[in-house]
Specification:
Blueprint (H helix, E strand, L loop, with lengths): L2 E6 L3 H5 L3 E5 L4 H11 L9 E4 L2 E2 L11 E5 L6
Length: about 80
């Protein structure tokens, strides 16, 4: 059974109620995004970036067993 580790940062933890989740059988980031919006409707009003294995992504990305996915709110450098 394929599992991914989901790390949640910033205000997104308020919407999800946790800073870490383990999810099963999610093949790609588009599927993950859809599932998260279904389970946590308040995320629809949030902007966030997704990273897979420490790399920011902008397109649908395949996930593998034990991928680490991070949800990150907007941030700025200084």
């Amino acid at each position: 059974m394929m599992k991914i580790n989901l790390l949640i940062f910033g205000q997104l933890t308020d919407d999800i109620g946790s800073s870490k989740l383990e999810l099963e059988e999610i093949a790609d980031t588009d599927t993950l995004h859809h599932i998260l919006l279904h389970r946590y409707p308040s995320l629809k009003d949030r902007k966030f970036t997704i990273a897979v294995d420490a790399k920011l992504i902008t397109t649908n990305t395949s996930l593998t067993d034990h991928s680490t996915v991070a949800l990150m709110p907007p941030f700025s450098g200084g």
